[in-house]
Design a protein that fits this description.
This protein is an alpha+beta fold. Helix content is 29%, strand content 23%. It has two domains: 388 residues, DD-peptidase/beta-lactamase superfamily (Beta-lactamase); 94 residues, Lipocalin (Beta Barrel), CATH 2.40.128.600. It has 13 helices and 23 strands. The strands form five sheets. A nine-stranded antiparallel sheet has the order 3-2-1-15-14-13-12-11-10, with helices on both faces. An eight-stranded antiparallel beta barrel has the order 16-17-18-19-20-21-22-23. A hairpin with a 5-residue loop joins β21 and β22.
Length: 514
Amino acid sequence: MPTRSCLASLTFLLSFGLAMPPATCAAQTPLTVDQAQAVVQRAYEAFGRPGLAVAIVQDGELLLEVALGQRAEGAPMTPGTLCNIASCTKAFTAAAIALLVQDGKLDWDDRVVDHVPEFRLADPWITAHMTVRDLLSHRCGLVTFAGDLLWYGSDHDDAEVLRRLERLPIRQRFREQFGYQNLMYLVAGRVVTQCSGMAWEDFVEQRLMGPLGMAASRACAQRLPPDAERAVPHIGGAAIQDHEFVACRPAASIYASVHDLVPWVRMLLAGGAWDGRPLLTEASLQQMWRPHVAISDAGAGAGNDDFRSYGMGWFVGLERGRKIVHHDGGMPGFLSKVVLVPADRFGFIVLNNANDGILNEALQRALLALRAGEDGLAVVDRLAQIAQRFHDRERNAVAQREARRQAGTQPSLAIAAYAGDYEDATYGAAVVRHDEQAGLTIELVPSRRRLHGSLSHWHHDTFRVDFPDRFLPFALVRFELDQDGAVAGFRIDCPIADFDFGALDFRRAAASTR
């Protein structure tokens, strides 16, 4: 799942006037190990604590594997340290579908309902016409990140999430508008299972990781051995609990190291060949790497951004006149990036456990600038200065939010009156409890492990909750009263780009008190 730290990085860079270079075809200069090492070291010093790992492939061969900092307190990060690569998993899911196409077991343009009969979206016509290609290219009609609270930290399994898809509103034009979707990759994983007779996890490990020699990598955290060299995720320099996926694994659950990802990148840059034989065909790569939907970005300006698009499992664009194929990934405490320049057989992998997408973006821009004969170190330094301004802006936004609190107000009702059972038609249940000692508490039942906490009065009928999940800002729960002055329901204001808390509408169950 790309987080606010990675997907938002391009937006903030553009907002500060640092657009991509012009789309002229600049001559490329091969990197030296010393040059690359210096850029990585500078980026680590500017952004990268606690840990950073980078691998670079040049002319189809490994140029550099380097790791700096710590994977956990007192334990060094190494090129073999396993991180959650998050949405870089999507490329593996697209490749799994490609293998099944190569096997003759399905076609890119097969209807989803022919392989997953229980698949339903809110629009029956879209349901009937949705293809496997549509699943993988973020053009299904759902807006970006729609429905992600169904799986994030949730006890809903894939079957339950799939059952609730039909309740999500279609707000965009099918096949015309880009809306980044994790849930469609869940469905793609179901297609893999139905067509192969294997769980998605088994298929990815046996058909992709196995042939590539990715011996330490696993499809999800639950499959890692106890002695795995596993990084600990961090936010704000503090270690946090890792996210272990119950649902939606084909979107974001793979654990890998830069060392294990090198053969993956080398295979892709070799036209799909590995150990002298094709793993993926060139036809499969052409399908995955061609534009399927344009990514419009109002106000981004002209230039290379006009050509930003999504293929299947990969973003596609231009960088200094050359086609670039890339993807970011983000889960709380982990950020990942894989970048390919296929024509030059050049690519690199960046993994960090500091939750800093600006770091990854800085490395991408610096390494590509260095290949174009520019000063890569200066690019890192400039982005470090801009990042400070960006973080200042974030802090100011929090301060402004707190300043809008209205002093001297009281709840409309006695505190105990807000307790009760509530339900959002798409997401599920929530419980607000009242206890004389603990006061008012809230629990979003499907995500009880992450989304719970004490409610403290903010103003009027609004209460603040600080969820234990440090990835989330503080939330404001606004209770709504009906015409008789009784509590009818509540809405949640939690301003984070990754999840649409505002779409939740919890209604109180009849005659419900706690």
